[in-house]
């Protein structure tokens, strides 16, 4: 059983793993999560959660996807000085006390080498630890979304092998989609644009700023002779969500939630490494 911390909309639960409980403080993410999953999901700020409350779940694995902004250029890389890091720092005092059998921490590559990363390692005395940077493209999925993962277990384990099964971008696309917002039209020359019919095309990592920022927030699509945005459903498919997964009704909010989420396909491989899938 898995305890899903910073659960977001449920990218880890979407792997099919047994989840004992999901925790996140965001009201809109909670709405989407509970629309898709029937297991317990709590709206709770982890900055003050008691060790005994987490221990009571009896989970075999904890999954942590703490806010990435303290470790990004956009977030000014304030690291442990960023208030958005407070809940993670609290959990790093909880882990040595509760000693979950295994855990996975996911974040942007900039997390590695940070002061928060150093404190995380210090909290894992006695664990077997492996660290990797994995991307859906390594599995053959046509999107770049490189993330840092730390896996820790009280028992020895081996990383699941990566098997690349190439897919084409066109497999993930709808016949049409939303046009560029007028505010972005003049930045077309600066955008990363992929062609719908390009068999080798790979989209760049989509972030919460997609649709508001012309660069470093995701790719735009050339289809039927025009450049358009990717739809939330197309982004969801690239992230490994099935078409019956309920997205937020507001496209901009849905895109932001997906941008803050995890790759379902990569999460599945990592959970296989710990023997819970």
Task: Please describe the structure with a list of short key phrases separated by commas or semicolons.
single chain, 277 residues, alpha/beta, Rossmann fold, DNA Methylase, Chain A, domain 2, three-stranded mixed beta sheet, 7 helices, 22% helix, globular
Characterise the protein shown here.
Helices cover 22% and strands 17% of the residues. The chain is of the alpha/beta class and 277 residues long. The protein folds into 2 domains: 172 residues, Vaccinia Virus protein VP39 (Rossmann fold); 88 residues, DNA Methylase, subunit A, domain 2 (DNA Methylase, Chain A, domain 2). The strands form 2 sheets. The protein has a 7-stranded mixed beta sheet with strand order 3-2-1-4-5-7-6, covered by helices on one side. A 3-stranded mixed beta sheet has the order 8-9-10, with no helix packed on it. A hairpin with a 2-residue loop joins strand 9 and strand 10.
